[in-house]
Design a protein that fits this description.
This is 14471_t:CDS:1. This protein is an alpha+beta fold. It has 22 helices and 21 strands. Strands 1, 2, 8, 9, 10, 11 and 21 form a 7-stranded mixed sheet that branches. The chain has a 6-stranded antiparallel sheet with strand order 6-14-15-16-13-19, covered by helices on one side. Strands 3-4-20 form a 3-stranded mixed sheet, with no helix packed on it. Helix 1 packs across helix 8 and helix 12 packs parallel to helix 17.
Length: about 675
């Protein structure tokens, strides 16, 4: 990674031209249309909406500084070179001609010309769609996460307004306190029975069980511990502090955005509390591969023990408007649906900001449960510490070498056992950095690729960022292929950063209209159980690189989920339905008998035709699995049925990377 990155003057002109296209000053006709937008905030703040209509992102000098900073911090050197190249291409008349159809630099086109160019890209070749996807997503997400000037205008409160004061104090559950070993400038060398690398859903359970069994355990976490008093619930700060790559983690093609927790407690600190059991059809599939444990009574007892410790239940659910819409739409259309169990220990957990950490302390992730148990049993902890490699001697793991993040203090741990629980992205990377040669390491990457369907309800205050995030789901398209590799429909929290990622930019006017309508939007995630995997490799610096493309099979599963999501929204009364597909126009159903309307049928046909593969849609991932596959044969797997790495003794993997396949449910 580079230490600094500056744009030249020509590149700055190009960047400002993009800024002034995506979030642009509207003309008089557009402003009049904006003021007529159906949204309650128009009546509340007409003068502020008028000011918003005149806002032009190209006039915000600070944005360019933040953009450069994000590129440096979040993208490797070769990707920075690509960004440089793209901006240079737009600055030259000859190459701009190929991209825009005009023999002049992009910044010399007027705003309406630039807008038409971007709109054409959504229907163009894969390269054009990729440029459209990366630039519109990056610019809009960076703006709406880092600048709050127009939050009040659009009706978004920013951080949870209830996360303070007497009401907050009366319901808060205090985080456990943890003491962390400090590594002095000269470094530190320590001895433990077991070192566990990672503190999430895998590392938390393992460290607790081993510490309670009497082992001297050290847990190393590369992320940082944040007490609830340190959780701001602000979008930008939360992404920076709690997520891998500050929330800007992409596959190599930059068309799948991957959210992965990187903090004390791992993904369990930032997830949506969804606590689903491993489906029986997945257990049977794994047992058929020789992993018979997954059909055993012992496995059932383990699951019950985990659920009990995490307080998993559906008894205290309170559906927010988003979940009510999913349930209403399913009932009216005839789809099956169910409640989503949560790990909240019976609390009415109405925290739409929980993806930025659970300030209330109600979500019973590793931080609140397993790591507490490990602490009480004598385990020790180090946070903000990156394990460079596992120390191996005579084909046995004997410890680890690590370095303090943003420092140069070296930590050396000697141990009898090493347990890798870094997650499906970093566990294979660590094994590779440590010299392991098994060809299966890093293969078998599953991401549960997801997209979103959004409905507009002008007469309903949805506030999709508030209340319990994920309390209902539908598995109506779970088995569309006959092998249970389909998709689930779940709800999501819809803060501005997610809105601008999953609602493709259509025009400057449309963008501002949708932002003003955020309180009337219902969001439904389409989460696929992917059948065709990708892989993790490492670059010359040992950094993991994510190679993943959505297969035709998985694209079809996602599309069937999108169509089901459309049906649910229409049945629930949405006046407009939007998908995350770039080339799909928004659809306004008729009020009477909408499903027999020829326009509706044409819309569905278009959704199928466009699909989601080949840079056709905004795609995300919140679940990563499979890259250290468990199996019964070292020729086809990385670890044995006990989690031990085949080629090295005293070395184990305990996280979602050992999954033989994707699981089709939230994997915590």
């Amino acid at each position: 990674m580079l230490d600094s990155f500056k744009f030249n003057n020509e590149q700055i002109k190009v960047i400002k031209a993009f800024c002034g296209t995506l979030i642009a000053k509207l003309d008089d006709l557009e402003t009049d249309a904006l003021l007529k937008t159906k949204a309650n905030v128009i009546k509340k703040h007409p003068s502020k909406v008028l000011e918003f209509s005149k806002f032009d992102l190209s006039e915000n000098e600070e944005f360019i500084e933040i953009l450069a900073d994000k590129l440096v911090k979040c993208f490797p050197r070769d990707k920075l070179v690509q960004f440089n190249l793209v901006f240079n291409l737009f600055a030259k008349s000859s190459t701009s001609l190929l991209l825009t159809g005009y023999f002049k630099p992009f910044y010399e086109l007027d705003r309406k010309q630039r807008e038409v160019v971007l709109q054409k890209w959504t229907k163009g070749f894969r390269l054009y769609r990729n440029i459209f996807s990366v630039l519109t997503t990056l610019f809009n997400v960076i703006y709406w996460t880092n600048f709050d000037k127009y939050f009040e205008t659009i009706g978004y409160p920013g951080p949870d307004p209830e996360a303070n004061g007497e009401k907050f104090t009366s319901k808060i559950n205090l985080f456990p306190t943890y003491e962390f070993i400090q590594v002095p400038p000269e470094g530190l060398e320590l001895q433990f029975d077991v070192v566990v690398i990672g503190s999430g859903a895998g590392g938390g359970v393992v460290s607790a069980q081993l510490a309670k069994a009497g082992y001297n355990v050290l847990v190393i976490e590369k992320g940082k511990y944040y007490h609830q008093n340190e959780l701001s619930l602000k979008q930008a700060e939360s992404l920076n502090n709690l997520y891998e790559n500050s929330g800007y983690l992409f596959n190599e093609d930059k068309n799948v955005c991957i959210l992965s927790g990187s903090t004390f407690g791992g993904g369990t600190t930032v997830n949506y509390s969804a606590s689903l059991k491993l489906p029986h059809f997945v257990r049977k599939e794994w047992a058929a591969q020789g992993l018979t444990y997954f059909l055993s009574d012992e496995f059932n007892e383990s699951i019950e023990a985990v659920e009990k410790r995490m307080g998993v239940s559906s008894d205290a659910l309170i559906h927010n408007e988003n979940n009510k819409i999913l349930i209403e739409g399913c009932k009216k259309f005839g789809y099956r649906y169910s409640n989503m169990p949560q790990n909240t220990a019976g609390h009415h957990h109405q925290c739409g900001w929980c993806t930025f950490g659970c300030k209330y302390g109600e979500k019973q992730g590793s931080l609140m449960t397993w790591l507490r148990d490990a602490r009480d049993a004598g385990a020790k902890f180090i946070d903000n510490c990156y394990v460079e490699k596992i120390l191996i001697k005579n084909r046995k793991a004997v410890g680890v070498k690590a370095i303090i993040v943003n420092g140069n203090q070296v930590l050396t741990i000697h141990s009898k056992k090493v347990i890798v629980s870094c997650g499906a992205i970093h566990s294979p990377a660590l094994l590779r950095r440590s010299g392991l040669k098994n060809a299966n390491i890093g293969k078998n990457l599953y991401l549960h690729p997801l997209t979103m369907v959004t409905g507009f309800f002008p007469d309903r205050e949805v506030k999709p960022y508030s209340g319990s995030i994920m309390t209902s789901e539908s598995n109506v398209v779970e088995n569309v292929d006959g092998d249970h590799y389909g998709a689930k429909i779940e709800t999501a929290t819809f803060h501005p950063l997610f809105l601008v990622f999953f609602l493709p930019w259509k025009s400057a006017l449309n963008h501002k209209q949708r932002m003003l309508q955020i309180n009337h939007l219902s969001s439904m995630l389409i989460i696929s159980r992917d059948k065709i995997p990708g892989k993790i490799t490492i670059d010359s610096s040992g950094r993991p690189r994510i190679h993943y493309s959505i297969s035709n099979h998985d694209s079809k599963s996602i599309v069937e989920g999108i169509i089901a999501g459309i049906n649910i929204h229409v049945a629930a009364g949405a006046k407009t339905v939007m998908t995350s597909q770039f080339a799909i126009e928004e659809f306004e159903p008729t009020e009477k008998d909408p499903f027999n309307d020829p326009r509706y049928k044409q819309f569905i046909e278009k959704v199928r035709e466009i699909g989601v593969a080949e840079n056709a849609s905004s795609i995300g991932s919140a679940h990563q699995m499979g890259t250290c596959k468990m199996g019964i044969d070292p020729k086809t797997s990385v670890v044995n049925p006990k989690g031990k790495v085949w080629e090295v003794d005293n070395l184990y993997v305990a996280d979602a990377s050992v999954f033989p396949t994707s699981v089709g449910v939230n994997p915590m």
